[in-house]
Amino acid sequence: MGTAEPATEEFGRLLLTLRTRAGLSQERLSHTAGVSVRALADLERGRSRGPQRRTVQALAAGLGLDDDTAAELERAAGRGRTRPRQRPPAGPRANGPLALPRDVGDFVSRGPALARLLALVERADAGRSAVSVVSGQPGLGKTAFAVHAAYQLAPHFPDGQLVLDLHGMDPEPTPARDALASLLRAVGVAEHAIPAATDDRSGLLRSVLHDRRLLLVLDNAAGEDQVRPLLPGAGRCLTIITSRHALAGLESAHRSDLALFRREEAVELLSRIVGPERIRQEAQAARDLAELCGHLPLAVRIAGQRLAGRPHERIGKLVAQLAKEGRRLDTLQVGDLQVRAAFALSYRQLAPAARTVLRRASLAAGGDFSPESAALLAGLPVDEAARYAEELTDAGLLQSDASAERYRFHDLLKLFAREQLATEDGTEVSRAALDRTALWMLRRATAAALRFDAEPQEDAPHGDPDPAGAPADRDQARVWLETERAQWLAALRHAQARGHHQQVMDTARAMHWFSEFNQHWELWVELFRHGVEAARALGSRQDEAVQLNFLAWSYNVCVHDPGAALVTADAALEVAREIGDRLQMGWALGYGASALQRTGRAEEAIARLREAAVCLADQTSVQGRLAELTILNALGGYLRRSGSAEEALAIHLRSETICQAEVPGRPTELITVYLASARQHMGNDLAALGRWPEAERPLQQALDIFETMKMAAWAESTRLDLGIVLRHLARHDEARSTLLAAHEALRELNSPRQAEATAELREMDVRTT
After folding, report:
1. What is the distance between the alpha carbons of residues 393 and 136, in angstroms, rounded to a whole number?
2. Which of 114, 174, 481, 761 is 20 to 30 A from 717 via CA?
3. Mean per-residue pLDDT for 679-707?
């Protein structure tokens, strides 16, 4: 370890004192000032010479120093700086045409990315000059980051820092040959000594820079072929390349993939632009503004500059303006800064087919979309659409999922794509794309959902629209339905609006049994409402009774609205009685009973269930036997809650016997689910009777089945019941871990039973303290 100069020790002690006084950790000061933690540690220990003025200014801003204290810190830094050594005549010209532009004084965030660049510099060896690629979507502040990094790293590169705009977004980017001429002139090569050929110029540049420590910023690169000839070879130089493209083909490059701001970082930039007092006065509006800007640095800066230019306007006013999607991109412009223009530069670089994919993909519903959705909307083969989606990702116009072949837009880019869609495609083309996609999605969703049906349907709708690419089994069907639920629900809405009632009916009917596996999805209420509307439009009273029953179930179980459930079940009962459908009468009575039980009308609920059991007693079909099992399980549960646990246990044992007997059609998986439900009830019946040791086994059996079937809502409710039994068995560690797991999962499922789990955990705390 070398001995520090006294002047550097003076600066280090002062910096440490000021940071401690401000109550900031090194990590926090690193984040606010944009100086790496390692550099801060070296400065405070006197291991580095006095930092440059711009670094001191960043530290002063991060520490919130007043002018006098900031000046004192600068004087201490000045005493620790070494005298600049004389540069050779061939060195770069500090004030030449390639000199660094002005650093932004309100630069925020990017601390980790800056720290990684510093680490790259510190571990570099003379064998290879380092290269770092800064890429990402338009508006991330790549150039600002590269310039700021160049200033921060300047002490490591005494031979200078240069920046060259390669005009990668122009119709004709700068040729490598011309870029090399500019660089050679900047490092002191006479005009007459610059070779004519590109390869010769590249070799000369590497030779000149071999013994120098130069930082080179190649801004706005078009592609790998443009930048490869410009890179130094052996030596201690650093080249920072910015590009909207990933430049994935560039070998041995460090990568700084800039992310969107976090909300607090976006608010911090607003604070630095308009002043902290203004932000404090409208803190929530500032957070809302950051959200509406999509945390995109360019958008946040534009919003801040607009506010700075209008010091008497409220932040809330700008928030209200940005909340109108149709005006958002118009609002996000100030002077020569425009979000729309930044996006348009990249859009103009695309091939026509890639532009079509980008525009049409903006019609996809939900947060992300698959290549299949992009292909349907664009009218292209899937493989071709997938290839263009990857190109759009490399161009920074789409974001790819980390683990699946899916893509998403930034919110502002989606608005831009929608604008281009309206201008270039128009209403008719867009409607045709949505029609084509909706009908395909509904056919795929219907075919996938029918894999969960209790029995084959003779009148089942036509199969999958692409049998070769269809889900091969029930597990794949589940994955597709869960992943694409935003798309097929949007397709259902579109089909209903366009009057395709039969397609809506087919899908709603097919979804019934699949919905049992995802009871926590609130979308089932909307889907079965559409089913009721479609049945009425088609004039089918039988379908109307079925869909009303499905809707009553969804009100009860999915959104916990027993009032709406009772009204809907009564409507289903009226239609079923009118057409003499005893199966639907039984279901309607059962769903009405469930609603009555939830509102505390237990005696009425039990009466309805007994009536339902009578309606279903003569049903011999698979659907009839499953309905009977549902009614019996529910009746036993209500009897247990009303104090008749012995009768409840007898009924649930009867349910178990029915499940274990031969059932017409042998819907094995569904019968297994009903068996699990019966055993969950049996466990609770035994618990109600105080037979705790006997209660554990049926509950564990039920939990194992529900988990295997991936029925989260059922499994977590059973886990809670099991945790209660374990608590009464005084197996405290097992009980606590089981109850904690159930509580967390029930909270995520928005289940009313999460309150019961909370109460059980509190009871455990009381009894164990």
Report:
1. 9
2. 481
3. 94
Of 691, 683, 694, nearest in space to 720 by CA? 683
Contact (CB, 8 A) for 134 and 218? no
pLDDT of residue 7: 65
pLDDT band at 82 (very low <50, low <70, confident <90, very high): low
Classify residue 409 by its DSSP letter: -
Of the candidates 564, 599, 565, 571, the one whose C-alpha atom is nearest the C-alpha of residue 585 is: 571
Is residue 217 a contact partner of residue 141, using CB atoms and an 8 Å limit?
A: no
Termini Cα distance of the chain: 55
Residue with tokens 């005549």: 89
Alpha-carbon span 701 to 712, nearest angstrom: 15
Spatial separation of the C-alpha atoms in residues 104 and 272, rounded to whole Å: 11
CB 672 within 8 A of CB 666: no
Strand 215-219 relative to strand 337-338, pairing = unpaired
Contacts of residue 194, Cβ cutoff 8 Å, sequence gap at least 6: 181, 184, 185, 201, 204
Residue type (1 letter), 149 = A
744-757 per-residue burial string, b: 16 or more CB within 10 A, e: under 16: ebbeebebebbebb
Q: What is the DSSP letter of 369?
A: B
Q: Are 622 and 664 in contact (CB under 8 A)?
A: yes
Instruction: Please name the amino acid found at residue 275.
Output: G
Query: Which amino acid, residue 482?
Result: E
What are 226-272's pLDDT values in tens digits? 999 999 998 889 999 999 998 989 988 999 888 899 999 999 999 99
